[in-house]
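=== Per-residue structure ===
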Amino acid sequence: MDYQKEIARSLLEIGAVGFKPKDPLTFKSGLISPVYVDNRIFPAHPEKFKLVINGFENLVKEKNIDFDMVAGIAVGGIPYSAVLGYEMRKPSIFIRKEAKGHGKGKRIEGGDVSGKKILLVEDLVSTGGSSLSGVEALREEGATVDDCLVIVSYEFKEAQENFEKAKVSLRALTSFPVIFQEAVEMKKITKEEKKIVEDWYSDPWNWAEKYGFLSRSS
C-alpha cells in the first residue's frame, strides 16, 4: 500500500486540510501559513484512523525500530501513541507541552522512562519544536530517544536540520508536498489558491510579508 498517497487522500476526504489564503493562521513557531492540516479529526473516522495506525506499524517493521515504550506528544499525538502501544503490546505514556502547575509538576505521565528506549509519536511536524522539546524532556529523565513517528511532515529544511542536530530520525507517513499534489488532483483547491500555496511553500518565512500579512513579531 502507498501510505503516503492513501493518508494524504484520507486527510482531504475528511476535511482535515484547509486552504485559507485570505485568512492565514500562525503556527506555534511564528510561521504564517495559508494552509492547515488537522490530524485530530482522524479518530472520529475509525477506518481512516486505523489506516494511520497500520501505517505506523508498517514503519516500525520496515525500519526495524526497536523500542520499550511509546510516548505521545500532547495532545495531538496521544490517541495514536496509545493505540499503537496497545496494538504492539508496548507500554504507552504521554508528554505534556509544559509541566503541570500542581501535583508533581511532571511533563512525562504514565510511567518511569529511565533506562528505556522510547518511540516518540507526533501528529504533525513543521519545524519540530514541540517534538524535540519532548525528546529533551525524555532524555532528562534518563530515556533514550532515536526515532519519531509523525503522520504529516511539512518537510521544511528547518525541521530536517533540527532533528539531525538532536540525533533523532524523523519518519513521516506522508508530507505536505504529497497532500498538496493530491489536493490538486482531487480538485480540492482553486487555481488561485494553488498559486498562493506554491508561493508560500517555496519561501514560507517571507511569504506573509510578500502578501501583506503581519508576522507575529511585528
